[in-house]
Design a protein that fits this description.
This protein is of the alpha/beta class and about 375 residues long. The chain has helices spanning about 45-60, 115-120, 125-160, 165-180, 210, 230-240, 285, 310-315, 315-350, 355-370; strands spanning about 5-10, 10-15, 20, 35-40, 65-70, 70-80, 85-90, 105-110, 190-195, 200, 205, 220-225, 250-255, 255-265, 270-275, 295-300. Strand 10 (about 200) and strand 11 form a beta hairpin. The radius of gyration is 22 Å and the shape is globular. The chain starts with 5 loop residues before the first strand and ends with a helix.
């Protein structure tokens, strides 16, 4: 049996800014051999198609990245056959993807070819009503997230003030000296891919960071206080790799999707830096795959650089802010769940009017063309 590497992450996420997309980083036009954009409505079989193709390719020994949907982590928005540089991406709202270089790189699969137009048109009013209700709940969810972000910022500001920042810079410099010093600064900077390892979904916060660490030879497991921004620390580590010509993968925090890196991978040298806290907890024993796993894990606790006096002095306000943040985040998750209920009703209307036998035939044809 061929062994393959299967990784999981979110290319887009629910955030205080609304739906935030990093889909443009999945495969670049010059990098890709093929990018297949999949078009079609909810319940038309796009995710099932992606799952079946991805699983079949993994069984055949291909390394596959599974790109999950933040509206439903059990659904896929894409797959990437990493070694062959082939991507299949759901190109429908809210992450609209269209061909950039049609024919040469991009093509389209239209799942509208597999549905019954008339029967779906007969349900027009219900579909529109459920979609409108779904949109209303998303607006409520994002308003709660925006409120959570205000509380989160207060939590960050207070926590960051108590951190000995000079010691954090020394820590980052020590890590760079340890991991990068034998590599010269490169004329050409490395590339950065940006995604999310943790998603805010209707079922709560879901993290796939463990799947991303499988091939990493050395892992820095960094425990951080809730709300600690760590933007400088992780960006120093990122810059140190990129300036030496290494391509990196940066996985961002959904509460601060433009600035705060939660996890950083440098695949070429097999080094990963991953943060843990109450929202994406990870213990060393969860990383190891068995007795023969010889990967090195280095533990770092940022709490060691937090003034004990300061932490004790501000314990009350930090606890209050933490509770308020959890409450607002849980309210947003509840609203996402209500949005999903309406989305599921729309899906059912499409499901009963689809020809899934034709989709299964397409799965077989697609796999045969790749393997």
């Amino acid at each position: 049996m061929n062994l393959s590497i299967e990784r999981h992450y979110f290319p887009g996420n629910n955030t205080p800014e609304g739906f935030f997309s990093y889909y443009g980083y999945i495969l670049g036009q010059r990098e890709a051999e093929k990018i297949i954009c999949i078009k079609g409505g909810p319940g038309t079989g796009k995710s099932t198609f992606l799952t079946k193709v991805g699983e079949r390719l993994a069984e055949a020994g291909e390394n596959v990245d599974f790109l999950h949907c933040s509206a439903d982590e059990n659904s896929l928005d894409g797959i990437v056959v990493t070694d062959k540089k082939i991507a299949f991406i759901d190109g429908t709202s809210p992450h609209i993807i269209d061909p950039i270089t049609p024919g040469a790189v991009d093509s389209i699969i239209n799942f509208g070819d597999f549905w019954n137009d008339k029967k779906i048109a007969d349900q027009k009013e219900d579909i529109i009503s459920y979609n409108e209700e779904c949109s209303r709940w998303y607006k409520i969810a994002y308003n709660y997230m925006a409120s959570a972000k205000c509380i989160y910022d207060n939590l960050s500001n207070i926590t960051d003030e108590g951190i000995e920042i000079s010691e954090i810079y020394k820590l980052a410099a020590d890590i760079i000296a340890r991991e990068y010093k034998k590599y010269d600064i490169s004329i050409k900077a490395g590339n950065i891919k940006r995604f999310f390892a943790t998603g805010i979904t209707p079922n709560g916060t879901v993290s796939y960071v463990k799947s991303l660490l499988q091939t990493m030879k050395k892992i820095y497991l960094i425990n951080v206080p809730e709300g600690y921004s760590n933007t400088s620390f992780m960006n120093i580590l990122l810059d140190g790799a990129v300036y030496r010509g290494f391509d990196v993968e940066a996985y961002y925090c959904p509460m601060d999707p433009k600035r705060k890196i939660e996890h950083l991978l440098v695949p070429e040298i097999g080094v990963a830096f991953t943060t843990t806290n109450k929202w994406h907890d990870l213990e060393p024993w969860e990383i190891y795959t068995g007795e023969e796993d010889r990967r090195e894990i280095t533990m770092i606790d940022i709490n060691d650089y937090l003034s004990a006096y300061y932490a004790e002095k501000n314990a009350g306000i930090l606890e209050k802010l933490s509770k308020l943040y959890s409450m607002m985040l849980n309210e947003s998750i509840s609203a996402l769940s209500r949005a999903k209920e309406n989305h599921d009703l729309v899906e059912k209307m499409y499901v009963r009017n689809m020809n899934f036998e034709k989709i299964d035939t397409l799965v077989e044809k697609t796999v045969d063309n790749i393997v």
